Model the fold of this input.
Amino acid sequence: MIRALWSAASGMNSMQTNLDVIANNMANVNTVAFKRSQADFEDLLYQTIQTPGVQNADGTQVPTGIQIGMGSRLSSVEKIFTQGDYQNTGNDLDWAIEGRGFFKVISNGEELYTRAGDFKLDRDGYIVTSGGDRLQPEFSVPQGTTTININPYGMLTASDKNGNPLASVQLSIYDFANPAGLSSIGRNLYRVTQASGDPVEGTPGTDSFGTIAQGFLEQSNVDVVKEMVDMIVTQRAYELNSKAVQAADEMLSLADNLRR
Done:
């Protein structure tokens, strides 16, 4: 009965964490290029009273053992890097990556990566994120520019009113062997970790790298209906675990009153 209390409590803790993850997904349903997270769980240690396959006293083999689990715990919270839908904005500085890849920016001297392509111009004409982090390679839009164009293969060109190019640069994007190993630091930014592997630089549209779509933004990959279903299932699982705690408590109370 005591084991049931702790096992059910571990289940309640797991479901509470799952609800936290779901709530964060739903809170970012309108965040540009947000990638949903998924909580994974695993069972805890088992108390083994009888090992499966052992022989009993008369020499026959026991087909199943007796193992009682100790509950569950969180094993990981993984980012799911599936492609989000596209929103047509018509803005020259809204870029979506179609396929694999990340933009690189410099934030406080540190190289960080993002898929959020809602770029802006700062006062010096550089292309920056909403947080002011400069896109790499740096590109300053010259005075007299009326049109900024980037083709699907990352060639960025600033042109005057007559269509004459004033400046251009080849934009690179970056990929990782394990994007789920990137560390999320907020503001739509990711930091490289040993789990993600080193960034691999490439030209958009070559090898396995995605292409650039100007005038579009990648939307969040959160499926609201799925999150709602997951939330209901999580709520019910939490409720079931609380019922198990209540049942174990009532059994303890009955055992405590046997002598009265």
